[in-house]
Specification:
Structural class: alpha+beta
Strand content: 15-25%
Radius of gyration: 17 Å
Pfam families: DUF6461
Largest sheet: 7 strands, antiparallel
Order of helices and strands: EHEEEEEHHE
Strand order of the largest sheet: 6-5-4-1-3-2-7
Oligomer: single chain
InterPro entries: DUF6461 (IPR045592)
Amino acid sequence: MHVSSPVLESGWHDEVNLVFARGMEPATLAEGLRRLRREPLASGEGDGWAWAVHDMLNAEIEDFDPVAYGEISAGAELVVFVTEPCSAKAHEPHFAYYRDGRLITWFSFEDLTQRPGDNPDYLSAELLAANLIGPDAGCEEEDDGGHDCFDHHYEDHNRIVRAVAGFFALPSPPLSTEVTDR
């Protein structure tokens, strides 16, 4: 997953998280992120979801820990995409879904079979329908001598994002015609 407009076009780096919140106003989401020491870089709303993009880390205060989104999700739903959890170490993006302060499901784009949370199978039907998990999930050309599965690596990421976004009916880019910058 790679975040584009408005973040990267504005000159910010790509180690950002994209957070969608349903049942929460954009200002409430932004304030919650600030309490977690993550200043929104851009925010808005669309299709019943508030959204915000923020830096994954807060280097100014040496806060390199994962963000505790459960603390701000009481009474709401949060869909979170961590786009580059550690680009230098080649970790894959990951997804998390929180509801009412609880982690419902989480998975790395690297291994969709490991999905911790209160309901790890919450998106299993959608992932299975998209051939992202299950018996048809592997690359059909994997055993071909000249095939490199990395050739479709980013398309696989796009399929994951489409499955998640479709299930939750998330707004699509551009996320808003008016972006609120910091």
